[in-house]
Request: fold
Amino acid sequence: MTAAVIVFLVPVVLFVVAFLYETFLSFRRLKNPKAGKSGYLSATWEVTHTLLVTGVVMLVMLFTQSIDQLAAAIFWATFLAAVALGVRAVLYIYIFYVRSTNKTTWIDWSFAWTHLVAAGLLVVVVVRALWFLFKNNPVPNSQFLPYFIPGVIAVVLICCIPMLVLYKTKD
Amino acid sequence: MEHLNASRLLMGDSLAFHIIFVMFSLTLPVLVVWFQWWGLHKKDKKSVDTAYFWSKIMTLLVITGVISGTVIALQMSLVWPGILKFGGEVIGLPFMFETYAFLIEAVFLALYMATWHNPKVPRLLHIGFGIMVIIGSTLSAYTITSINGWMNLPTGFTIVAGKFQDVDVWQAMFSRTAIIEFLHSMPAYYLAAAMFIASLYGIKILRAKMRDRVGKAHAFDWVIIQRLVLFSIASMVALVITADITGKYLAKYEPVKFAAIEMVSQTNNKLPFVFGGVPSADGQINGPYFVIPNALSILVGNTSNTVVKGINEYPVDQRPPTYIRALFNIKLTLVGVVVAMFALYVVLRWLKPKWLASGVFLVPLVIAGFLGIVMVELGWMLTEIGRQPWAVTGYVTTEQAVTKTNNITSFGYIFPAAFVLLLAVTIMATRKIVKDNAAKATKGAKK
Reply:
């Protein structure tokens, strides 16, 4: 059970760190709208989402026997967080791909606030999930972990090596 | 709206929306790497510039696809918990592996885009990053398709006294169904996306005056169309071969779906292939149709003596809705139109290439280019609706799988609205990238 919770929490914690940084940038750029795309993250944006998806997948796959009750516990907060992330994506594309102006408008403020709303709702999801797990102590599907954990190490290595090459050769 | 249908609608329109971005997320990396490699190999700057231009659109579409994909991942577990409650311990592995594929795709896409103009990164290494994007997105497609394949025909376990025994997660992930579905859907995505992009270049040419359409200004646009059509024809050939394999597979392993699609009312041999028509309640055929005698039996088993199971073998409440036949008719018609347009293109290109530039031929070719997306959507509708009333064939009905504790109706309205908004802003952003690219090209030409 503890190992399963750790497997769920690791990507979530990494996501929280990355997302907090994005939230910080989204508010910081309100003061300096002329920075344009360089005032916010571009390419790493999707990597952050990967961590969120990993966290959700770990949670539901490890506890499939209790998934109906678990889903009920996190349902509203998760769906509302998905709506907030969807709105954030729409605003992101609009601000960085469509709009030509560099002035701060209500759209930029909305973009920044969607970070906070999504983060708040995701915190509710994690707290409710953890509360459910500790209260009900469900049996996890640990049979996947022997395949999953070596896989994580391999994938992290695959992803890290070119990143190191990139770092060494950066302009 | 009733709870179950609202959930079906929510899942249906989420998938219909997401699949559009899946097509491009899978195809654009292949096209981008191909054009970049070609450009470097032949020292053709225009090909490299095109690859760079497409890669910017690819990033945008991947961002949109990530959002719609995240929503679908949430829906699978929150709206349909019955599927995972039943089979999570068998089919959980591809879900987990999908996150690896997703990570590889995301990291290498970031690297690929960040190093486009970095002189210290060798170009072959840069192409290598692009190839990793292809590998990541393709693995991601496989894992998700394998879950769908398992829902269509669950394997990798036995049930003794209501409990799983002999669980084989690898068999579940690499089932025959999964492999066949994957091999059939991949060329369909390639075909749809490549045709769509070729059509956009066709529109660009159509907007010019007739005398300019075959001039120097559009010479490279024709080269792009030519390459994309070749890519599409190769995909179409793969699609036809895998369609035949899929048909044979369905007749043997998912016979009720096959019988509903092909209107096989009674089990028999020497069955004809019927084109057109929809089944009536009394087993007759309504509407216009024509038949090719014995052809269905021959297609299924290579001989007219092949017995094909009819829908009469299944209880009424375990049959898919009859309207999937209409969907199949539309799909088959579209396939015919697309094949005819390919033939027209090849003949004109060979005999009268200048005629291709006239509106009479170019307009229908451009319209046909958009049909691939409709064909993919119809293909997935046939797969999903053809499995009904089951969510996991033979074990969990859709009604059993849907959440019992939460009302989904309000989300049934919110998410489609959000998807429309996301699509609108994505189209606007794509137009902006295209305009900026055109402006840059004009500026470059003036210099």
Observations:
- The longest helix of chain A spans residues 67-98.
- Chain A has one domain: 2-170.
- Chain A has a mean pLDDT of 81.
